[in-house]
Write a structure and sequence with these properties.
By secondary structure, this protein is mostly helical. The chain has a domain at 38-110. The protein has helices at residues 24-28, 36-39, 44-50, 56-66, 70-89, 91-110. It is globular.
Length: 112
């Protein structure tokens, strides 16, 4: 019979915080390399609205998973992947969603 695995202690999760002298890239930088499946999960609409290269979609993902109302999170998770291609094609829709997402991000990170 094998011995049970030794328990590993994990560091507690710490919310990213923006300071005046800190760049957005520093806050959104992953501490570990994410696998291809991990890095593109959940935020289909945010990536379509902001673009893959804009790190603001990562901040929106933090808001969605931690602070969004349950009904919105559920709606996003259920229909977001199918809705993202529509957002990518409609520039006016992407712009409108970016304004809403920016408000959520700003509210989350300014209240600290």
């Amino acid at each position: 019979m094998r011995d049970p695995k030794p328990s590993t202690t994990r560091k507690p999760y710490e919310m990213p915080r923006l300071t005046r002298r800190q760049s957005l890239a520093e806050v959104t930088a992953a501490k570990k390399k994410l696998s291809p499946g991990e890095e593109k999960t959940v935020c289909w609409v945010a990536r379509a609205a902001y673009g893959e290269e804009n790190p603001r979609w990562v901040l929106f993902r933090a808001w969605l998973l931690e602070d969004a109302p349950g009904w919105l999170r559920s709606l996003y998770l259920r229909h977001g992947q199918a809705f993202a291609p529509v957002v990518a094609r409609q520039r006016w829709l992407a712009a409108a969603l970016r304004r809403l997402m920016d408000r959520a991000i700003t509210a989350k990170f300014q209240r600290r």
